[in-house]
Amino acid sequence: MQLNITDHLADALKEALNRAGLPVPESVFWEVPREESHGDYATNVAMTLARQARRAPRAVAEAIVAHFPETPAVDRLEVAGPGFLNVFLTPRWCAEALRHILAAGAGYGTSEAGKGTRYRLEFVSANPTGPLVIVNARAAAVGDALARILRSLGSTVEAQYYVNDAGNQVLTLARSVEIRLRQEMGEPVELPPECYQGEYLIDLARDWLARDPAGVRALLALPERERLERLGRRAVEEFVTAQRRVLDAYGTVFDRWVHEAADVRAAGLPERAIEALAAAGHTYEQDGALWFRSPEAGDDEDRVLRKS
Questions:
Q1: Record: fold of 5-95
Q2: 50 with 42: CB under 8 angstroms?
Q3: If one looks up domain 115-267 in CATH, what number appears?
């Protein structure tokens, strides 16, 4: 039996239009009505064809019903409102379709339509400066669902999480953690507005001090550059570990975790990319900065690659 019912209905509808001597569009769309009383599927094709057919929408819909081919899937058709066409499926067909679905098990809906295609999906990729939030949950659900759909079509998919663990935000995180640690140790220090204000850093500071008070004190006694580098690295590691734990519990699996600091910057990839763009004539210098002619790649304005 043909399980793709909308394709089946579209073919039958085109046949009915042809039999009735009406225009036959390239595409016909069926959708599930909001109200069950309007059938299992409905289409407004009669209204979209009315002007071309030079007939009232309801007259077009009635002609479709009169010429609709018999099919074991369709119990009856009804014309509703200004010219909607509602279709009611037969219980026998629905039961048979359900048996096919149950028999297919986990393989139901899979195909080889995407065989030979490859995708790299990067999603969630939350900043490693704090816990995941609700917007990350939405991104995880959508991204993981898309990866599963593409795989079910035979495509090769790599789900990637990009950890932005380099740059000023990590330095800001380190300064924020240091201040929270010193506050928990009783020092009269204030958290500047440019630092991260979340109370989760208070929890982090208390946890560190509870686990290893001597180690924290030794860390805070280091020279500033080394102290901030180690504070930032340790905080990022803890937040990324927590993010992975939450995503695992959520059922979202990533094939690859890419760390900007170790996998991108340490490998010199930004510099190599800039050199390639410059060699191809896609960059220019202006106001002491290096610019990328990004409109050539479909962007709306030039972008700064490297500031002075």
A1: Gyrase A; domain 2 (3.30.1360)
A2: no
A3: 3.40.50.620
pLDDT at 308: 75
- DSSP letters, 98-138, are HHHHHHHGGGTT--STTTT-EEEEE-----TTS---HHHHH
Which uninterrupted H or E stretch holds 56? none
Report the chain's terminal Cα–Cα distance, integer Å.
67
Q: Where are the alpha helices (DSSP H) in the chain?
A: 5-19, 45-53, 57-67, 91-104, 134-152, 168-184, 200-211, 213-220, 224-250, 269-279
- Here the tokens at position 86 are 């509602």
> What are the residues whose beta carbons fall under 8 Å from the beta carbon of 59, sequence distance 6 or more?
none
Q: For residues 301 and 292, what is the distance between their CA atoms, to the nearest angstrom?
A: 9
Q: What is the pLDDT of residue 304?
A: 95
Contact, 53 vs 23, CB < 8 A?
yes
pLDDT of 2 strictly over 90: no
* CA pair distance 208, 186, nearest whole angstrom: 15
Chain mean pLDDT for the chain: 95
160 in Cβ contact with 122 (< 8 Å): yes
Residue 133 has what pLDDT?
96
In the chain, where are the structural domains located? 5-95, 115-267, 271-306
CA-closest candidate to residue 46, choices 9, 95, 99, 83 = 83
Dist. CA 71–CA 90, nearest whole Å: 10
How does DSSP classify residue 85?
E
Both tokens assigned to 98: 């359900």
Q: The pTM is what?
A: 0.75
Residue 235, φ and ψ in degrees, nearest 5: -65, -45
DSSP 8-state symbol, 69: P
- Beta strands 289-292 and 41-43, pairing class: unpaired
